[in-house]
Specification:
This protein has about 400 residues and is α/β, with parallel strands linked by helices. It has 3 domains: about 5-130, Response regulator (Rossmann fold); about 155-240; about 250-410, Histidine kinase-like ATPase, C-terminal domain (Heat Shock Protein 90), CATH 3.30.565.10. The protein is about 45% helix and about 15% strand. It is built from 10 helices and 12 strands. The protein has helices spanning about 15-25, 35-45, 65-70, 90-100, 115-120, 130-195, 210-240, 255-265, 290-305, 370-380; strands at about 5-10, 30-35, 50-55, 80-85, 105, 250, 275-280, 285-290, 315-320, 325-330, 385-390, 405-410. It has a 5-stranded parallel β-sheet, with helices on both faces. A 5-stranded mixed β-sheet has the order 7-9-10-12-11. A hairpin with a 2-residue loop joins strand 9 (about 315-320) and strand 10. Helix 8 (about 255-265) crosses helix 9 and helix 9 packs antiparallel against helix 10 (about 370-380). The longest helix is centred in the middle third of the chain and has 66 residues, at about 130-195.
């Protein structure tokens, strides 16, 4: 069976589109209708029409601009593009030809004559501007119109950009204020819960499920987790707004790493992971914000814990590299796909299916909000450092592992 010749019709008036489809369909053509300029460009890239019918007065990009753009496609540059439009003022025909149209058919179309006109254009008929002088005149006018349209769009984009910046500032200010407001009641709740746990009159034990002491401890842990979520969101907002304040003090990095490991392993004694330390004790002191660098190490190491199955090893090593301390956290986990390596530092980006989300910081493939590595990157960069990850790929059987690198400048 011979395939029907394809015609692309750019028309936003449904009645006109239906009429042309019926008239040309009866002549053996397959007419594809799109209603705007962007759709015309997308469809033009996918199909090989024998003819393009173009309504000039369409929304967005007008028919002149769409025609000029279609002419840049190699497979359409020689295809006839015919303006079928109600634009019938003086010069409209010439403007259409200057824009790249092969001819001009005014609306309303003559349904008896229309199929013959279409066939003539498909057969090679082309209309021309009467004189070179007129052609030059309309070409200058068309070029000016394109420049004016471009200027108009640039102004619109600039205004939209300014509006977005204003909304972003409002959002950041709101999150920062909300974060500060939430900190106080959460601190109070957590503090009183800890106070209750010290009282000998509270019956039961923290590991005795259902007992009053157990219930109070669960409230305390939930409050602590919520505080960490608030802190992560607040830190991301401060980083984005370039408002992250650093309280610089001297630290011993090996002591801080050991503290992070101790606190992480205390959260879930069920995980059987080996931690190996290499040369950390020989690293010189750093001058950093101790609380925030602790958070960086916690976020990166807990990430390695989450993606390393039981029985795996996490190696933490350090060395002096020129004027920086180079820390590496290497695990024997499932690894990271190459296309994910940069994206894992993006806000709210999570590798796992969110329907399987778990809040555990240490469970294998335990979920989170996708903020930990974003915060880590922001804090490291605020210190003038750099963080990145290397991995051969993701494989839950071969376990290629991942290596996180953290560079922090030495005191000058």
């Amino acid at each position: 069976m011979t395939e029907k010749p394809q015609i692309l019709y750019v028309e936003d008036d449904p009645s006109s589109a239906t009429l042309v489809q019926r008239v040309l369909g009866a002549e053996g053509y397959n007419v594809t209708v799109v209603t705007d300029g962007m759709a015309a460009l997308e469809m033009g890239q996918r199909m090989q029409p024998v003819l393009v019918l173009m309504d000039i007065n369409i929304s967005g990009m007008d028919g002149y601009e769409v025609t000029t753009r279609l002419r840049a496609f190699d497979h359409i540059k020689d295809v006839p593009i015919v303006a079928v439009t109600a634009a019938a003022l003086r010069g409209d025909r010439e403007r259409a030809l200057i824009a790249g149209c092969s001819g001009y058919i005014p609306k309303p179309i003559d349904i008896d004559r229309f199929p013959e006109q279409v066939q003539e254009f498909i057969g090679g008929m082309r209309e021309e501007v009467e004189s070179e002088e007129k052609k030059s005149e309309y070409l200058v006018e068309y070029s000016r119109r394109l420049v004016e349209r471009l200027e108009e769009k640039i102004r619109e984009l600039q205004q939209a950009h300014e509006d977005l910046q204003h909304l972003e500032r409002m959002k950041s200010d709101f999150v920062i204020l909300a974060g500060h407001e939430l900190r106080t009641p959460l601190t109070v709740i957590y503090g009183y819960n800890q106070l209750l746990l010290t009282m000998p009159d509270i019956p039961g034990a923290v590991d005795e499920e259902g007992s009053p002491r157990y219930l109070i401890s669960q409230v305390a842990e939930a409050t602590k987790r919520l505080s960490q979520v608030v802190e992560d969101i607040l830190n991301v907002t401060l980083i984005d707004a370039n408002k992250l304040d650093l309280k610089i003090v001297p630290i011993e990095i090996n002591t801080m790493v050991e503290s992070v490991i101790k606190n992480l392993t205390s959260l879930d004694a069920g995980r059987s992971l080996e931690f190996v330390f290499d040369n950390l004790e020989n690293l010189p002191p750093l001058r950093v914000d101790s609380q925030r660098i602790y958070q960086v190490l916690w976020n990166v190491i807990s990430n390695s814990v989450k993606y390393t199955p039981d029985g795996g090893t996490i190696t933490l090593s350090g060395r002096v590299l020129e004027d920086t301390v180079h820390l590496t956290i290497k695990d024997t986990g499932i690894g990271i796909d190459p296309q994910e390596r940069d994206r894992i530092f993006d806000r709210f980006y999570v590798l796992e299916n969110t329907s399987l989300h778990r809040t555990s910081k240490t469970a294998f493939k335990g979920g989170g909000m996708g903020l930990g590595l974003t915060v880590a990157r922001g804090i490291v960069e605020a210190h003038g450092g750099k963080i990145w990850v290397e991995s051969e790929g993701r494989d839950e059987e071969k376990l290629p592992g991942s290596t996180f690198h953290i560079l922090l400048p030495l005191p000058t």
